[in-house]
Structure formats: structure tokens, C-alpha cells
Amino acid sequence: MPSVFTKIINREIPAFIVAEDDDFIAFLDIFPLAKGHTLVIPKKETDYLFDIEDEMLGKMMAFAKRVAKAVEKSVACQRIGVAVIGLEVPHAHIHLIPLQSVEDINFSRPKLTVDKEEMKKIAGDIQSHLQ
């Protein structure tokens, strides 16, 4: 059964996509810890990040870096935090989270509610800063 992320890749369910290439896609987390919280995933469904081939994992990190730089220019923050939990969805993914403090990357905190119009604006801002 395809993961929810594979359904996003296949455009079977909507997402606020901010970047995409042949191998990866990045989209806003619908349960964000901070505005601009973005997920980076490989298009090839792989359950565990460290099962991704070395070359592809390197490319994924380079893609994530490019997206993180765009998020950083789009959302007021001191840095972009990176997290890999790997338990929520059986599809490898990297969280890019705008940070003001270390507390901003605490996954036990309540998630934000961001309306669709603001999500659309944030996604557009990130897209405009991609290089």
C-alpha cells in the first residue's frame, strides 16, 4: 500500500509543494512545529532514511540544503533545524524546521494550526527564494 507521501508525489492528495526534481519533493508539513516547517522526501518510496543508497542520500541532503536556504529566506528564524524521526510515516523524510530556540524542534509540543491561505503564501515565498 502506498504511503501518504507517495500519494502526494502522485498528486492523489493535495500538498503545498515548494520544490521538486526528478528524485525528490519538498512540501509544507500540515502539522507544523513552526510556520515554514517543510518535509523533504525521496520519490522512490523507502521506509528508512538509512536504507537509501549513499549517492542518493547525498543528493537528498543537497536538495534539502537548497530548500532549507529558501525556507530561511522566507520565514523569520535564526536557523533551520533538521530532524529525522522516521516513525510517523513509513517513507523516509527529513524535517526542515525554522528555529528561534531549541524548544522549537520539540516534537512533543502541540502542532500549529495554519490556515490554507497562509500555507499557500508561505509555499509561494519559499518557491520564490529557490536558487
Please give a structural write-up.
- The chain is α+β, with helices and mostly antiparallel strands and 131 residues long.
- The chain has a single domain, classed as HIT-like (HIT family, subunit A, 2-Layer Sandwich).
- 31% of the residues lie in helices and 19% in strands.
- It is built from 3 helices and 5 strands, in the order H-E-E-E-H-E-E-H.
- It has helices at 4-9, 54-74, 116-128; strands at 17-20, 24-28, 38-42, 79-83, 94-99.
- The protein has a 5-stranded antiparallel sheet with strand order 1-2-3-5-4.
- Helix 2 crosses helix 3 (116-128).
- The chain is globular and about 35 Å long.
- The model has no long low-confidence stretch (mean pLDDT 95).
Describe how the helices and strands are arranged.
Blueprint: H1 4-9, E1 17-20, E2 24-28, E3 38-42, H2 54-74, E4 79-83, E5 94-99, H3 116-128
Antiparallel strand pairs: 1-2, 2-3, 3-5, 4-5
Task: Jot down its keywords.
3 helices; HIT family, subunit A; five-stranded antiparallel beta sheet; single chain
Short description:
This protein is an alpha+beta fold and 131 residues long.
- Compute the number of structural domains: 1
Radius of gyration: 14 Å
CATH architecture descriptor name: 2-Layer Sandwich
* CATH topology description: HIT family, subunit A
| Residue share in helix | 25-40%
